[in-house]
Amino acid sequence: MRHSVENHRIRITVDQVGAELSSLVNLDSGKEYMWQADPAVWGSHAPVLFPIIGKLKNGTTEINGEQFAITKHGIIRNNENLELYSQSDDRITFRLSSSEKTKEEYPYDFDFRITFRVRNEHVIIYHEVQNLGTEPMYFCLGGHPAFRVPLHDHDPYDAHFLRFEHDETSASHIVKEDGTLTTATRPVPWEKGNILPLSHELFANDALVFRDLNSRSVVLESKINGPLLKVDYAGWTHLGVWAKPNGNFVCIEPWIGLADFEDSDGVFKNKEGIIELAANESYVMSYDIKVL
């Protein structure tokens, strides 16, 4: 089931399965900003990443001395058990609580809520994780929204670029075929200090994975039609930029944490960027998408 809210500027629709933002429409122009999940290319809109980002080394991880196999990107994505927790004029909240099913992959007692709020031309996505257990719990968290490129149908893909908030020199960590990362990096074709040109070839070797960017916001722009949207990700520690090489979209992915590195020791709490949450405590993080 899908649920929608709107204001005088934008309308959003969220799929209850996986709590994926499936539509973001500018009501002035009628333009749809979200990738429409063509299954022949990539059948998702905006997966929610919890409690891992990407893949685990050898597909498993050690938690409290036991081995667990957590699905790529975690237990929210494609999950049919999220409930519609609340809905009002300007926001929708979905919830997943731990169960015997979730504990087959991730053994902690938790409550996970994600809220999508519209405010003027902004969509703000809030994530709240509560530790219901008696010991610390560990997790990574991420967004994976895919935006249409081109937004204007007759623009070429390579007429688009990402303009970062500050000048950048970061290289990208290399994603191996098994989904793990290497400490080795590959160059990124930065232009004019803060411009990342988009091309299908840019993603021939999977995602760009950044762990040391200066910027905490980025604008998707067209050389023909100007700025299209902005993603603010203050507080998030890592960023992924990804598309299928044959996909007319780009994912701008705020992360806290990363996929396992190839030399990972396989212990969950030792993952880079892992969040430690004390018993009975809550953790809240958000990012903002602005239609320009």
TrEMBL record:
This is Aldose 1-epimerase family protein. It comes from the Bacteria. Keywords: Calcium. The lineage of its organism: Bacteria, Pseudomonadati, Bacteroidota, Saprospiria, Saprospirales. Monomer. GO terms for molecular function: carbohydrate binding; isomerase activity. InterPro entries: Aldose_1/G6P_1-epimerase (IPR008183), Gal_mutarotase_sf_dom (IPR011013), GH-type_carb-bd (IPR014718), LacX (IPR037481). Its cofactor is Ca(2+).
